Structures are given as structure tokens and as C-alpha cells.
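Lecture 7, part B: from sequences to assemblies.

Below are the input chains for today's worked example.
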Amino acid sequence: MDFNNFSVVKHPLIEHKLTIIRDKNTSKKEFKELVDEVAMLMAYEITKDFPLEEVEIETPMGMTKAKMVSGKKVALVPILRAGLGMVDGFLRLMPSARVGHIGLYRDHETLQPVSYYFKVPPNAEDRDFILIDPMLATGGSAIASADKLKSEGIKNIKFMCLIAAPEGVKAFCEAHPDIHVYAAGLDEKLNEMGYIVPGLGDAGDRLFGTK
Ligand code: PRP
Ligand code: URA
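Predicted structure of the full complex, as C-alpha cells:
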């Protein structure tokens, strides 16, 4: 899709794993493991523009100058529930990242997001935020979450999802042109119930076995 702030993270391993995630015969255990692995692979791409600084260290052979990630501290913010499934994969690459939570669910009738929880790490203005949710469907949940983060004074935000629908990409990218959206897959459309087609079904239910 033609938005400067949207990209699909392309990698053969991501595509392969996403295919198994989509398969309705994939078990709950494997689904969770693969979502975790794809999140880790995506984290590699999403952090690729993080600034580096030179530090001096001593190896067993002597002193040298080398690079380390500098700049702001990172906060991951999964949108409950399904966003939780992508946190550990990211944390494996950046174990010091703090984790906030946004509690939202989509009303099944209206498809509007209903908010029930919000907690982010302190000194939020000084951090880089990565908002996480596997599904970008109508975009309502992600837009409301980004609105809330911004209302708390947070400016540096990226959004990461597994599967995006064109409708959600358009709505989100227009509402938040300053937030880059990273997806592992861009699907065809939403159905009349607001589910992504072909998608993967209900991400929360498949992660937590609630259906
Ligand atoms: C799912 C998903 C997103 C939202 C996407 O959550 O994890 O948060 O739907 O839909 P939208 O783009 O149309 O807002 P759901 O509301 O099913 O809650 P859950 O994670 O608690 O299952
Ligand atoms: N939420 C999901 O979990 N799946 C969809 O396809 C759309 C919204």
C-alpha cells in the first residue's frame, strides 16, 4: 500500500512461519511459539535504525573502541490480550526494554475499541515506544492506543503487527502519519464481521485457547 509510514517486513523465515500460523490446524502450542519467533525476527528489522555510539572496552587482547546501541530507552506496549503473544520474542533481542500495557477489546457489535487498562513505564517522554498487536483490522484498537500514548506526551512511537488489512492500514496511516507501521503480512480485506481475510482467525483465542 502506498503509505510512507507502512512497510511489510520481508524475510523467507517470516513468510514460512506466518503460513503455519495462519493454518487452522496449527495447535495452540505451535501457534504461540511461532508468533513469538516472528516477533523476534521482526524486532531485528524494526530496530535497524537505532543509533549507535562508540564506547571503549578492553578485550582479552587489549583496549579497543566498539559500537553499542545508544539513545533512548525502549518501551514495548502490547495491546491486551493478543499483543502479549509478541512481547517475549522482542524481549529476547532487547531484554532491558520496559513493558507497558494497554487494555482494549473490540466490541463485537460496533467493532469500536473499549478501553479497560493503561499503564506505561515512567519517564515515558524520554523513551522510544513500540506498540504491539498481531492484528490491524479496522484499525480502531491501534488508533485508540496511539491516541492514548500521545495524550500522555509520548512522541516516538512505532507500531508492529503480524497481519494488516488494507482498511486498517489506511485508517491508521492517515490518523497517525508520524507512526511507522511494520507488518509481517498485508491481507486482502475485512469480512462483514470485521475479521481479516484470509487472516488467522481470532488471535487472542488462538493464543490463549479460549475458543
Ligand atoms: C483483536 C486484536 C486487536 C483488534 C484488532 O483484539 O488483537 O486488538 O482485535 O481489531 P481492530 O483493528 O478492528 O480494532 P480483540 O478485540 O479481539 O481483543 P483480545 O485481544 O482481548 O482478544
Ligand atoms: N481481531 C482478530 O483477532 N482477528 C481478526 O481477524 C480481526 C480482529
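Note for the exam: The CA atoms of residues 41 and 205 lie 23 Å apart. Keep this in mind when comparing with the next example.
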